[in-house]
Design a protein that fits this description.
Strand order of the largest sheet: 3-4-2-1-7-8-9-10
Number of helices: 11
Structural class: alpha/beta
Distance between the termini: 15 Å
Shape: globular
Number of strands: 16
Length: 359
């Protein structure tokens, strides 16, 4: 029987929600899955809406109740109707009340329910009722690192990597490469953008693309960038992001466990979506040896893996790419091929559908 799949995400991707990998992932997965089986993406918004994206129905329930005023922890009674439509529900956040309630409802009504942890979360009954974990038919982790930190090596915990739209995120020979370093992501302290600013070598410019979610950190970054060839671009659409990836000599994601303020980030990255996007555009990437990112980047082949909180080593790798343009082009080609081999949405969809049918 053909499944009807609901993907449940606490926030939409875009202006009506958040601009982050944790929001893009369920949207892109659901959009690709809708080309194969009937699929809905159900999310939450202060201004409810319904729209069609290709073959996908996107339904934003709202205005929701935010559990303990946590913006990443919304609940709305409209979940009941959406679960009633589905035969399979895939929750894209484990530690929120909506997921636990949805899992309970699925079990009561004989539907299958799965969950992927995309980071974040808030107050949830699973913290008080450990048995909630057993409600899920399977845990679909987006990296080996995610499965390890969850302590789940059992049969119902699989690793299914995320993907990239390799048509949208693709090389364009008509766009010349520049001596440009690009960072794409939210501007939060655990992203380590301060180390990238400190590492920027002579002869290279830097574009920091992302929305500032921490005023103190953003102010400190602006101070560090003063007098350097650095541009902050806080309102780019996908087309502008793709063009930046194509122009760049390198895309960098310098996330850290310990921020510049001394705070600890236990799980800074569960995948590293912007690395995949840059690689798909034929651009070498640099990441830190943090969390899941070394699963994506093959050191010395598709880019470099450097220690976190180490601007000197990061600068040396940027200088190498600056001074070896022919080798950098070959790295970019290898990066693109790695995405095509392992990180396409069609592969992710096929793996998810197999998991849904076998659990």
């Amino acid at each position: 029987m053909t499944p009807r799949v609901v993907h449940l995400s606490p926030a939409a991707f875009g202006a009506s929600g958040l601009f982050g990998g944790g929001e893009r992932y369920p949207l892109e997965l659901a959009r690709a899955m809708a080309d194969v089986v009937p699929t809905r993406l159900v999310t939450f918004s202060d201004r409810p809406f319904r729209e069609r994206v290709g073959n996908l129905d996107v339904i934003a329930l709202g205005p929701p109740w935010y559990v303990r005023w946590q913006r990443g922890n919304p609940v709305h009674p409209g979940i009941v109707r959406q679960v009633g439509w589905a035969t399979v529900v895939h929750c894209h956040q484990r530690y929120i009340l909506a997921s636990s309630l949805t899992a309970s409802l699925c079990r009561l009504t004989g539907r299958k329910v799965f969950v992927s942890d995309l980071g974040g979360g808030g107050w949830d009954i699973s913290a008080w009722v450990p048995g909630v974990r057993r409600l899920y038919h399977g845990f679909l982790h987006i990296s080996r690192y995610s499965r390890t930190v969850a302590g789940q090596e059992g049969a119902n915990a699989e690793v299914i990597y995320g993907g990239v739209d390799t048509t949208k995120f693709s090389p364009d020979p008509a766009v010349p490469k520049e001596l440009l370093v690009v960072y794409v992501g939210r501007l939060l302290p655990h992203k380590g953008v301060n180390d990238l600013l400190a590492a920027l070598p002579d002869g290279m410019a830097l574009e920091i693309i992302g929305r500032p979610y921490d005023p103190r950190f953003y102010a400190d970054l602006k101070r560090m960038a003063a007098g350097k060839p650095v541009a902050f671009r806080t309102d780019c659409d996908d087309a502008e992001v793709v063009r930046a990836y194509r122009r760049a000599a390198c895309v960098v994601l310098p996330s850290v466990y310990t921020t510049m303020y001394g705070d600890e980030s236990v799980v800074p990255e569960l995948l590293g979506q912007t690395l995949l996007e840059g690689m798909a555009c034929g651009t070498p990437v640099i990441c830190t040896n943090v969390a899941s990112m070394p699963e994506i980047v093959v050191d010395g082949l598709t880019g470099f893996v450097v220690p976190p909180n180490d601007p000197a080593t990061l600068r040396a790798k940027l200088e190498w790419l600056r001074d070896h343009p022919a080798e950098a082009v070959r790295m970019g080609m290898a990066a693109r091929q790695r995405v095509l081999d392992y990180f396409t949405w069609s592969q992710t969809v096929a793996s998810c559908l197999k998991a849904y049918s076998t659990c």
